[in-house]
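Retro notes (design track)

What went well: tokenization of the new backbones is finally stable.
What didn't: we kept losing track of which sequence belonged to which structure.
Fix going forward: every design gets posted as structure first, then sequence, in one message. First example under the new rule, 111 residues:
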């Protein structure tokens, strides 16, 4: 399955979660429900996956964690905020760079 095909499934599931739960919940609630929906769809999903930083061939644990990694190809970062800002974009771009992933989705569940 390509990154775009995976992303289509992720977005469909994310919308289903939002329709069911509505706005105003904590990010963790959306994450758990989206994780469940994606697993139910038969996708391989890692939750809170540690993202190490490799420096001079040494693995550094710097506290980075991906909200979800789907099919080991698509990074999903969830936010439950009133508005996304540059820090949120920088976060997902960092994950893409460190993990050498091609596609990431920054999904905002309106607060």
């Amino acid at each position: 399955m390509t990154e775009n095909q995976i992303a289509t499934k992720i977005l469909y599931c994310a919308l289903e979660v939002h329709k069911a739960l509505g706005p105003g919940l904590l990010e963790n609630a959306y994450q758990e429900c989206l994780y469940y929906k994606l697993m139910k769809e038969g996708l391989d999903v890692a939750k809170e996956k540690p993202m190490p930083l490799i420096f001079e061939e040494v693995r550094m644990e710097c506290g980075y964690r991906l909200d979800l990694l789907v099919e080991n190809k698509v990074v999903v970062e969830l936010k439950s905020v009133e508005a996304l800002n540059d820090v949120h974009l920088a976060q997902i771009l960092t994950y893409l760079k460190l993990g050498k992933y091609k596609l990431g989705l920054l999904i905002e569940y309106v607060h």
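Added context from the reviewer: The chain has three helices and six strands.
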